[in-house]
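Hi everyone, sorry if this is the wrong subforum. Our group has a chain we'd like a structural model of before ordering constructs, and none of us has done structure prediction before. Sequence below.
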Amino acid sequence: MRSLVTFFVENTPPLRTILIGGPIFLLWSYLSLRFAAYLKRSRGLKTGYSRKTFHLLTFLTVAVLQHFWGLPLVCLFGGMTSLNVAYAVLRGDGHPLYEAMAREQDAPYRTYYIVVPYFATLIGGIVSSFMVGPIALAGYLVGGLGDAAGEPIGTRWGRHRYQVPSLSSFKSTRSLEGSLGVMLVSLIALSLAALLSPDLNFHTNWIWLIPGIAVICALLEAVSPHGWDNATLQIAPALMVAALL
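Answer:
Right subforum, don't worry. Here is the predicted structure as tokens:
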């Protein structure tokens, strides 16, 4: 099996691509985060919505780049997005970009729960791409669409709360309504990934396998430590799709 070093070398874009695409991706990522900040400050949306707006735009961009141009551009976009997230974190409390991502209920660990989920996103993307290549698109779509559905749905309709594991002393809850949203949207995301991926062949077992994978994804999201579901909801569906479809 190739080494992780070889994986990064193979997926480092050429200098010309970095010089041209880097500023474009940096601007797009900034505008995505700025739009999320606008929704919170000017439109009065709760952080659960503004945060997931940025999450959704980021994952959808990654999915499009992966599908049409491959992993090197995904890596470049990830690097540029990291710069914008780092800038927002450094500016801290009160800055619009920071407030678009920092949940009030995460206090006094608001920065921690920006940084940890972001690193979880990077880890999930790297591990799934390293292990299954282009089929990682399934993980991008489940992580981007399925996971994005959980928090807004829970924020709006969540009535039945349950506590989730945490790697810190912070206590966090999710809702059954949010978990149901994760399952239903993951079903759509997996169907889209299966139809888009040239490495997968259509067969009648899809009608049984995809709902089963969606249920497992929802269960994994429910038990993932707070802040780490961005990793599990990329790696698990990518591996299951590669193995079963």
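For your construct planning: The first helix runs from residue 4 to 10. Strands lie at 161-164, 172-175.
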